[in-house]
Amino acid sequence: MPHLTRRQFLATTAAGTAALAVRRPDAWAQDPKTLVVAWDSDVDTLDPASFKTNGGYVTIANTCDIPIMWKVRPVEGRAGLFRSRPAEFDAHLAESWALEDGGATMVFKVRKGVKFPSGRAVTAHTFKYSFDRGLLSPGYMKLIFPTLIQVSAADQFQVRDDYTFAVKMKAPSPMGLETICLSNNAIVDPEEVKAHATKDDPWAAEWLKRNLAGVGPYRLARNEPGVEIVLEATPGYWRPKPDFDRVVLKLVPNEADRVLLLKRKAVDMVAGRPGLTPKNAKPFENEAGFKVWSVPDTTCAYVCMNQQKPPFNNVLVRRAVNYAIPIQAILPNVLYGYGTQMKSPIPHLTPSHLGDYSPYRHDIAKAKALMKEAGVQTPIPVDLAIRVGWPTHEQASVWLQRELEQIGFKVNIVKETDATFRQVAIKGGHTLSIESWQSWVNDPFYHLTFLFNSKSKFTNLSFYSNPKVDKLIDDNMHETNADRRAAASREVQKILIDDAAWGFLWYEAWTRVMSADLTGVEKRWDTFERYYAMKRA
To answer: 491 lies in which domain range?
Structure first.
């Protein structure tokens, strides 16, 4: 099996185009049945209940099947590109599903004949073990299940017979089927997991950091941290064999290197977040041999104002910040058109989005008047924290710095590694920062509860707290009347906009640059690629 280290890979690529015509930087790049992807994320763990990195999600999504999946449909005018629509699902390891008890019980018929690599059958018992593990193991699904589908005990996951599995929720939930679509619900081989469990680690979380126990279109052939993930087509897979025999995911942390490798045909595609920034993606629109596919997404970029810290505990100051944001300059000069102005904290693709209420526009005179009305003493020194390696945030921070200083702030831009940024943010250590959030479930109350409910301690990073908003979220999280639920969502959005809960920046587009011959690209609500349907035209 051909292999080069990342350093050798990049060094060989730099030898030049002529050399590449004879000697590719990696033998993978010469094989038409191999898809080579450069990405910017490594794998933290392959435990479906615990992964946090993009690398972990993508690897699991391509190697471990789930009961049902978000359906995709063709994107008009983009032959070969597919995307999800709200509340549409496809059968997967469950060949069918139904709702009982007025919607409070989800019943799944397990597809017969599917086997794990061990040869053991996928059954309702394996479904139950996998869901039990999510609820009871140390990962974060033990928090997700009670919040989203009101399941807090393992006996709510029920085996009716060898091929019928049921989830008995406390009450009907609009997010029931949506939650089942998460790749966190990968069905794993119970015997394989148990074989690597210990007294101190009964769910084999340590073993699953580097190993897989599921079945999917691809299996893990190599996991070399800091270098690459190699996936190979699974023999005897229950669906038709994927077109690509192999997918190689090369970790390339430096964006300039990702651009170079793409231009020299050493990789077929750049993925990840940010993958390629808008500035570097834009030129490929007119470059022969490449295509740029960009569609609207639910990713939100926003100015996070810590409302536990002055002066951002003052709503007038927060409103002033919103009037100071030069969004009409940021969209063309930072996003190059690959994004849309944020008009509400709920994404524009999410049902019940309120796009015509926000009064905020760039108006320095209005911002200054609000700062004066707030009665704060200026200049106000403040650190604006951003992540290293997030160029759009870095570029936007410079625009923000200039405008905020016009209204009385003295802004110091502080760059932190992703790990440091996250640790400081969770602890409430930032006063002002640029944040990003993408809701894996495209539901308004999924989005609202994690970002604005005062009880959400690790995701409500602005430390927003409003009892009325909490009650509206709690009362409508599982509301089954669509009209009432949508009305409550719009009411919450109005309050959040009036409260200037965020500094509203943009909704980021899902953008991928790839070889022009690639087709069968699928974009789902969680934004992460599945390579099963991809092929060369």
So the answer is: 296-509
Does residue 324 sit in the same domain as residue 434? yes
What does the angle CA 511 – CA 31 – CA 17 come to, to the nearest 5 degrees?
70
Q: Spell out the residues 6+ positions from residue 387 whose beta carbon is closer than 8 angstroms to its own.
A: 393, 415, 416, 417, 418, 421
Picking from 215, 250, 276, the residue at the C-terminal end of a domain is 215
pLDDT lower than 50: segments of the chain = 1-25
Q: Is residue 14 part of a domain?
A: yes
250 and 37 Cβ atoms separated by less than 8 Å: yes
Task: Count the domains in the chain.
Answer: 3
Per the domain annotation, does 60 fall within a domain?
Answer: no
Q: How does pLDDT run across 63-102, given as a tens digit for each residue? A: 999 999 999 999 999 999 999 999 999 999 999 999 999 9
In terms of DSSP H, where are the helices of 341-466?
364-374, 391-406, 418-426, 444-452
* CA-based torsion, 452, 148, 493, 337: positive or negative: positive
Shared-domain flag, residues 195 and 240: no
Cα distances (angstroms) measured from residue 128 to each of 89, 100, 173, 245, 374 = 21, 18, 20, 31, 56
List pLDDT tens digits, range 495-519. 999 999 999 999 999 999 999 999 9
In the chain, % helix, strand, coil (3-state, to 5) comes to 35, 25, 40
The alpha carbon of residue 362 and the mean position of all alpha carbons in its chain are separated, in whole angstroms, by 29
Phi, psi of 341, deg, nearest 5: -60, 135
pTM of the model: 0.91
Amino acid code (one letter) for 504: F
254/401 same-domain check:
no
Q: Of 513, 518, 522, whose CA–CA distance to 58 is shortest? A: 522
Residue with tokens 């003052």: 314
Query: What is the spatial distance between Cα 270 and Cα 350, in angstroms, rounded to a whole number?
Result: 26
When computed from its CA atoms, the radius of gyration of the chain, rounded to whole angstroms, is: 24
